[in-house]
Design goal:
Layout (H helix, E strand, L loop, with lengths): L13 E5 L6 E6 L8 E8 L14 E16 L13 H8 L6 H12 L12 E5 L5 E16 L5 E12 L10 H18 L17
């Protein structure tokens, strides 16, 4: 008799922090539940978009579209009864928050340099973050928004349930230097989109009421 245990486990979405030089994963953030919806926005970088621009540039693109993603993740310690959670979902929240701010050691180093009179301190470079949504969507991103709503707590006031609104901006070859691992991953993501577009059923002018063609 075949039971539910034989059903394939769903692929989870998540974030992967990788070393941009070696490409080795440093941290994997698996979203406990796949979000029900994804909001994606693409703003084309048109060369002639500005008012009064050169009309010969109207159909030219300066670079890849600016693409942003928004999703809402859910975290619930009570849904993982077989996993000890003495701190509630503090660890999961802390992991997400670490993606949008420098490590404490890096900040201490900057403070020490400032105390020594260093005139210019290079901003801290964050690790390369990848957003994964199945095998066909693996893309370099920068977190632009992280809004946490804690909804339930245990007797020690550890959060045990929360929703997290996450905003992402896709990093393209316009954002990263040539040869950067993130730039190569973006080009691979773009190539995957182009392959998928090639499998779409072709439409005909007749469906648009243009049987005579365009003139």
């Amino acid at each position: 008799m075949t039971g539910y245990t034989d059903a394939p486990r769903p692929v989870r979405s998540g974030l992967v922090v990788v070393d941009p030089r070696r490409g080795t994963p440093q941290r994997v953030v698996v979203l406990q539940f796949n979000p029900d919806t994804l909001e994606r926005s693409l703003a084309p970088q048109s060369a002639g978009a500005d008012a009064g621009g050169d009309r010969t540039e109207a159909l030219r693109l300066k670079g890849p579209a600016v693409e942003t993603w928004k999703l809402t993740a859910e975290l619930d310690a009570t849904d993982q009864l077989d996993v000890p959670a003495p701190n509630g979902i503090h660890p999961q929240l802390a992991t997400l928050e670490s993606l949008v701010q420098p490590a404490g050691a890096q900040l201490r180093t900057q403070q020490a340099l400032a105390a020594l009179g260093t005139l210019e301190i290079t901003p801290v470079e964050a690790p390369l973050t990848l957003f994964t949504w199945g095998a066909k969507r693996i893309l370099p991103v920068r977190l632009t928004e992280l809004t946490i709503t804690e909804e339930a707590f245990d007797i020690d006031l550890n959060p045990v349930r929360a929703t997290v609104a996450i905003g992402l901006r896709v990093l393209t070859v316009s954002d990263l230097p040539s040869g950067h691992r993130g730039a190569e991953l973006y080009l691979a993501h773009l190539a995957q989109k182009e392959r998928l577009a090639g499998t779409a059923a072709a439409g005909g002018l007749g469906a648009l009421g243009l049987g005579g063609g365009l003139r």
